[in-house]
Every structure is written in structure tokens, then in C-alpha cells.
From TrEMBL:
<dbReference type="InterPro" id="IPR005147">
    <property type="entry name" value="tRNA_synthase_B5-dom"/>
</dbReference>
<dbReference type="GO" id="GO:0005524">
    <property type="term" value="F:ATP binding"/>
</dbReference>
<dbReference type="InterPro" id="IPR004531">
    <property type="entry name" value="Phe-tRNA-synth_IIc_bsu_arc_euk"/>
</dbReference>
<keyword id="KW-0436">Ligase</keyword>
<dbReference type="GO" id="GO:0004826">
    <property type="term" value="F:phenylalanine-tRNA ligase activity"/>
</dbReference>
<dbReference type="GO" id="GO:0003723">
    <property type="term" value="F:RNA binding"/>
</dbReference>
<dbReference type="InterPro" id="IPR045864">
    <property type="entry name" value="aa-tRNA-synth_II/BPL/LPL"/>
</dbReference>
<dbReference type="InterPro" id="IPR009061">
    <property type="entry name" value="DNA-bd_dom_put_sf"/>
</dbReference>
<dbReference type="InterPro" id="IPR045060">
    <property type="entry name" value="Phe-tRNA-ligase_IIc_bsu"/>
</dbReference>
<dbReference type="InterPro" id="IPR020825">
    <property type="entry name" value="Phe-tRNA_synthase-like_B3/B4"/>
</dbReference>
<keyword id="KW-0030">Aminoacyl-tRNA synthetase</keyword>
<protein>
    <recommendedName>
        <fullName>Phenylalanine--tRNA ligase beta subunit</fullName>
        <ecNumber>6.1.1.20</ecNumber>
    </recommendedName>
</protein>
<dbReference type="Pfam" id="PF17759">
    <property type="entry name" value="tRNA_synthFbeta"/>
</dbReference>
<dbReference type="GO" id="GO:0000287">
    <property type="term" value="F:magnesium ion binding"/>
</dbReference>
<dbReference type="InterPro" id="IPR041616">
    <property type="entry name" value="PheRS_beta_core"/>
</dbReference>
<keyword id="KW-0963">Cytoplasm</keyword>
<keyword id="KW-0460">Magnesium</keyword>
Length: 595
């Protein structure tokens, strides 16, 4: 949940009323927000950097309200959006009507996307804000909103990178291309010397803020770059803008471009920016189109600033929230949340118009939530549910808890390991040829090599735990009862969880009899008899071969005619790959069938 810092006096001036801290906290609660902290800029710097920070001497003593904003309410991430939302909520102003228009005179500006951009950041959108009046507070809010969007929906610029430029200092049409880093030369923002893009990687490698964005493009053979018709570099997304087109308090016309790996999020970002700051233009709540030309020859106009409609049921709204409001009252409640609504010919239906600032409304239930907020959560009467139910523990969790203690009493120590692991942990380290033969669920964008797939067995996690505790006296007897994730095309989500018990005995000798004894104890607790006849009643061991286990010392565990796991002595190669120097015996069974 992002937190924004708003200067109290400036906020009250825009709201046209002064509140006490408690009164404003109540207003925030009614609007679905939370006043997190009342502080000052000086106190914030002291808390973050300490009393000796050089910034504390220049920090102001202005009261700052730190307000928690829902993660999907991008329209409330700055003073302008918050004031607009609160004024509409309190009935002080109508919801604005946002529009994207073509220039009155001259042709529509163009942004030409080259084919090479598909190698790094394939999408771009743009817009122009005309005749904007900036002052210090508005300028700071404009920059702060970009930072909040970068950290929130843009996922630290990996999905979307925003560039804002003084339109009067450049000349269109603009070109979005991808070039080798040595071919990109310009003076970066707030610098005086010209660098090529390769040199910029070194220049900003120690920069407190920018160094985190360098890995997004650093290893690519080409870097994205936006230039004007004269070859002036506007930006090197997602790292830095050019100094030539930087915005100042004197800027009147703003050219906004967003490059992205996710086009939908880029459209949300540019809609949010132009809608919230178009109120400072001479023609309020309007933004100018930019024509975006794609490599395949297709064109589109940005920003879309699109209104859409949704039909909702009055009965469903009342039932879901637990109220009994008339359609007319629900229309008024929705209007307080910037959702223009009107009655239809069907008395049960309401037509709701969703503005381009409310990208968080993606389903009818989001509209129900806004009705509940406008009605007031505290005003909803508490009632007992019509059907009384008693909560109880899941059967598999109850069985898990019942088994934990006896296994611990048998001398095994419980471990809790990561559900994610590397591809090698569940494949080559266990003696398998490749990950392709493992039914593992892969993480699409893993952050580290240690967390690439969901574990398909508990064994690697326990072996890593033993390796990390090699200094402890032998024997090391570790167990875990937890879920593994198995890819399953027949499951609703393409995968299923499976609860398993895994135990490993590490000693100077493998000690197969230790894990065999534990298996017998578990089966005794589960009231499963040993099957002397090796038939479909009871459990028994059946010799098998598994690359993870020593040849001739591995067996399938058959329970009531179905294999439920394996037991045996681990292969020396497996022990070596997990950095273990002592032999190990292991047991792993699926307990899902015992529920």
C-alpha cells in the first residue's frame, strides 16, 4: 500500500476548509483511506537518516499528512487527485469531464516506433499537455506522482518508464528506436557533460536512485532511446531523461512519453498523468492527442482517455453490502465516488459510467465496494448471518499436526524450508538429466537463481538444511511436513498441491533402518498394517531404481495397492552436489490419501 506525503496547509487550502487532525482522519476513513502519520519534513529526514543528516538544516517545519492509499487507486497518488476525489465525495464539486482533443491548428504530433524496439521495450504511448501553469508546489507534485507510479504500477520502471519534456524545446515528429549504447550520446538530466549510453551505466552505477534501474537494459545489445526530428535525445528509458528538454517552472507545454513492456499499464499511467494535471491548463481537463505509428504501419491516437459503462443490479448491490437503498440513493452514492450513474428503463439496473481515472474498477464488485464506502461502513447494520456455521481445521492440516509430534518424539528435528527452489535442485542435483522431465511449475520472472520453480519434492530443502548445519554433531535427523507443487493439466489452475512427509538421516553410516523404523511408526499411527502378502491391503516395499538413490538400495512404498513414496539410501553423487560429506538415508511419502 503506497503512502503519500501531503502538506497540510496546502491540502486544506485546496479543500477550502480547515480540519483538526481527528476530523481529517475521520474524513479519510469515510473515503476509504487512512491517515497514517502527522509529521514534518524535518522529522521524516531525521527518522530516515539520523540527526546528523545535512538535509535536516534545510528541511521545512510544515506539517505533513502521510496518507495510506490503496495500491490500485492510482488517481489518489498526488495532491491533485486526492483533492479532486475528496471534493467530489463531499459534494463540493462535480466529477470533471476529461477529454483528449486534436490540435486546433496544425497536424497532430507523431511518435514513430522503430522495429528494433521489439528487442528491448516494444511499446510506447505519448500525450501533450498544453498551456500548463506550474508553480513550485505543482511542479513537485508532478514529479512526485511520476515517482509513485514508477514504484507502484510500473514495478520500478521495469514495466513502464515515464519521460516528461518541455515541448517547446524540441521538434517533432519524435522517434522511438533501439540503438547500440555507443551510438547514443547526449547530456543527461542535470549534467553538463555529454556521455554515451555505455558511459552512463558507469556514471550512475553508484547513484542512490538510478542504479536500481540500470540492470533493466544494461545487458541488452541495444538500448531504447527517444529523439526528436533534429536528433536531440529526449530520454534513455528507463534510466534518465535528457537535459535539453527538462521541465522547469517556466514550462508551458509538456510532452509526455511512456515506454513499456506492458501496453495496458502504459495506457493507465499516461491516462492518470494527463487527467490529474490537465486541470492546470487554460482549457481544463483536456490533453492533446499524439499519433503513435507502429512498425507494422498501424497507427493509434494517445491518450485514449476512455469512458466506459457498466450495468449493475440494485438488488445485488443491496444484498452484497447488506443495505436496503433505493436506486435513486445508490445513484447519488456512486456519484460521490466519481462514478457518474443514471437510472435505466429497468428499475433494477443502474448504468454506471467509469472515468479514465478509475482503472481500479474492473468488475461489478468494485462498484459495489464504492457504494459501501459512500454509504459508510459504520452505517451498515450488524446482523447475524442467516446460516450459522462452525469453523474447523482442514482435515489435511489436522492430520499434519497429529503426525508432527510423534515424528519429533522419534528423534527427528522439524525444518521449514522454502517452497521455491532452483531448477537444478529438483533435477540435475537429484540425478535427473534435465528439468524438462520434472513436472515443475516455473516462475515466469524469477528474481534470483535460488527461486526459479516450485519444489516438486521436499528432499532438496532438507539436504540444504543439513548442509548448512554440518558443524552440528551427528547424527542429523531432519524432517518436514509440507506441500509440494505438481504440474497437472487436469487441475483447474494447471497445478495441484500435495502434502508430503520427508525425513533424512545423516550419519557416519547411512542408517537405512532409522528411516525404515520411522516409516513403520507413521504407518502404525495411521493404522495401516504391514502387508505380508504384498496385496492391496496394507503397505509394503517394492524394489525400484531411482537416480536419486543408490542402486539396489531404493524402494517404492506401496500402500493399499498404490505407490505413495520412496525410501532408500541417497546416491553419493546427490550428497556431493548438496555439499554433504556423510551418507544419508531418506524417506518421502504423500499423506494426501490418508485424509
Amino acid at each position: 500500500m503506497p503512502t503519500i506525503g501531503i502538506k497540510r496547509d496546502l491540502l486544506f487550502k485546496r479543500l477550502g476548509k480547515t480540519y483538526t487532525d481527528d476530523e481529517f482522519q475521520n474524513l479519510c476513513f469515510e473515503f476509504g483511506l487512512e491517515l497514517d502519520e502527522v509529521t514534518t519534513e524535518k522529522q521524516m529526514i531525521t527518522k530516515e537518516q539520523g540527526e546528523d543528516s545535512s538535509l535536516t538544516s534545510t528541511a521545512s517545519e510544515d506539517i505533513i499528512y502521510r496518507i495510506d492509499i490503496p495500491a490500485n487507486r492510482y488517481d489518489l497518488l498526488c495532491l491533485e487527485g486526492l483533492v479532486q476525489g475528496l471534493n467530489v465525495f463531499m459534494g463540493k464539486a462535480p466529477a470533471p469531464n476529461f477529454r483528449a482533443i486534436k490540435p486546433i491548428e496544425g497536424a497532430t504530433e507523431r511518435l514513430i516506433i522503430k522495429a528494433d524496439t521489439t528487442r528491448i521495450r516494444p511499446y510506447a504511448v505519448a500525450a501533450i499537455l498544453r498551456n500548463v501553469s506550474f508553480d513550485k508546489a505543482r511542479y513537485e507534485s508532478f514529479i512526485d506522482l511520476q515517482d509513485k507510479l514508477h514504484m507502484n504500477i510500473a514495478r520500478k520502471r521495469s514495466l513502464v518508464a515515464i519521460g516528461t519534456h518541455d515541448y517547446d524545446t524540441v521538434r517533432g515528429p519524435f522517434c522511438y528506436d533501439a540503438k547500440p549504447p555507443k551510438d547514443i550520446r547526449f547530456v543527461p538530466l542535470n549534467q553538463e557533460k555529454e556521455y554515451n549510453a555505455e558511459e552512463l551505466m558507469d556514471l550512475y552505477s553508484t547513484h542512490v536512485q538510478l542504479k536500481q534501474y540500470l540492470p533493466i537494459i544494461r545487458d541488452s545489445p541495444v538500448y531504447p532511446v527517444i529523439t526528436d526530428s533534429n536528433g536531440v535525445v529526449l530520454s534513455l528509458p528507463p534510466v534518465i531523461n535528457g537535459n535539453h528538454s527538462k521541465i522547469t517552472l517556466d514550462t508551458k507545454n509538456v510532452f509526455i512519453e511512456c515506454t513499456a513492456t506492458d501496453l495496458a499499464k502504459a495506457k493507465i499511467v499516461i491516462d492518470t498523468l494527463v487527467c490529474l494535471f490537465s486541470e492546470y491548463g487554460t482549457e481544463k481537463y483536456t490533453a492533446e492527442y499524439v499519433e503513435v505509428l507502429y512498425p507494422d504501419g498501424t497507427t493509434t491516437l494517445c491518450p485514449e482517455v476512455e469512458y466506459r459503462t457498466e450495468i449493475v443490479s440494485v438488488k445485488k448491490i443491496n444484498k452484497k453490502i447488506g443495505i436496503s437503498e433505493s436506486p435513486e440513493n445508490i445513484v447519488k452514492l456512486l456519484s460521490k465516488m466519481c462514478l457518474k450513474s443514471e437510472l435505466t428503463n429497468n428499475p433494477d439496473n443502474i448504468k454506471v459510467t467509469i472515468p479514465p481515472t478509475r482503472h481500479d474498477v474492473i468488475h461489478a464488485c468494485d462498484i459495489y465496494e464504492d457504494v459501501a464506502i459512500a454509504y459508510g461502513y459504520n452505517n451498515i447494520k450488524r446482523t447475524l448471518p442467516k446460516t450459522m456455521t462452525i469453523g474447523q481445521q482442514f482435515s489435511i492440516n489436522k492430520l499434519t499436526d497429529l503426525l508432527r509430534y510423534p515424528i519429533a518424539e522419534a528423534g527427528f528435528t522439524e525444518a521449514l524450508t522454502f517452497t521455491l527452489c532452483s531448477r537444478d535442485d529438483v533435477s540435475t542435483k537429484l540425478g535427473l538429466e534435465s528439468i524438462d522431465k520434472v513436472p515443475a511449475v516455473h516462475i515466469s520472472n524469477p528474481k534470483t537463481l535460488e527461486f526459479q520453480v516450485c519444489r516438486t519434492t521436499l528432499l532438496p530443502g532438507i539436504l540444504k538444511t543439513i548442509a548448512a548445519n554440518k558443524k552440528m554433531p551427528l547424527p542429523l535427523k531432519i524432517f518436514e511436513i509440507a506441500d509440494v507443487v505438481i504440474k497437472d493439466p487436469e487441475a483447474e489452475v494447471g497445478a495441484r498441491n500435495e502434502r508430503r512427509i520427508c525425513a533424512v538421516n545423516c550419519n557416519k553410516t547411512a542408517g537405512f533402518e532409522v528411516v525404515h523404523g520411522l516409516l513403520d511408526k507413521i504407518m502404525l499411527l495411521l493404522e495401516v498394517p504391514w502387508s505380508r502378502k504384498k496385496d492391496s491391503v496394507g503397505y509394503f516395499l517394492r524394489a525400484t531404481n531411482d537416480p536419486s538413490y543408490f542402486p539396489g538400495r531404493c524402494a517404492d512404498i506401496i500402500c493399499n495397492g498404490t505407490p505413495i513414496g520412496k525410501i532408500g539410501v541417497l546416491h553419493p553423487n546427490v550428497s556431493t552436489k548438496f555439499e554433504l560429506t556423510n551418507p544419508c538415508s531418506a524417506l518421502e511419502i504423500n499423506i494426501q490419501s490418508f485424509v
